[in-house]
Amino acid sequence: MSDPVLALRDIAKSYNHGNPNEVVVLRGASLEIAPGEAVALVAPSGAGKSTLLHISGLLDTPDNGEVWISGQDMARQSDRRRTAVRCADVGFVYQFHHLLPEFTALENIALPQLAAGQTSAAAEARARELLEAVGIGARADHRPAALSGGEQQRVAFCRALANRPRLLLADEPTGNLDPETSDTVFAALMTLVRETGLAALIATHNPDLAARMDRVLRLEGGRLDQTVSR
After folding, report:
1. CATH value at residue 90
2. DSSP three-state, residue 164
3. Relative to the CA of 86, which of 58, 66, 79, 194 has its CA 20 to 30 Å away?
4. Which residues touch 188 (CB under 8 Å, ≥6 apart)?
5. Percent of the chain at pLDDT above 90?
6. How many domains, the chain?
């Protein structure tokens, strides 16, 4: 079995630490995700799924515990090293696409590649490749306002994968889409996961989508229940 791309070990996190109004969000949460594995994260509102995703993606730090990405304990690394790993190895997708409105679909996908030092030609080629993979290659030169909600979210997926990360983190990525569009977008995402060997942790309230992933983790009371599986 492949080594996990992401491993969380006994993660604890609270806010207003030591304050009478302290809110404990995570209490020893642990998980592992292997290459090519799509894992659903389900949780009641306010249970801490966004905090868990932010810690997994090195946007936040735990009070205690270990965050391993590609064999490195990132909780012990400098901010500079964490930023470098986040940019190279982690892709994020949110419920709302956050595309830059003044740029075309292709340009939105090329931008993170240019920031990482790719040439314009290589960045454009990669963007076209990804857009074709999710079925909207013909929309490459359209700005977000000219795209449907489902098309915009597929562009957001492509942008997240532009620099070939090893880990994809998605927070309700189809939550603002109608059921039919949600299904189309999710199918495109799963195709990318399978074909690229990504490890994906996807938060969703949609039980049908969760059931189509490899495993379902439930976050409640600050802990992860890993006994629920497809």
Report:
1. 3.40.50.300
2. coil
3. 194
4. 133, 134, 135, 154, 157
5. 40
6. 1
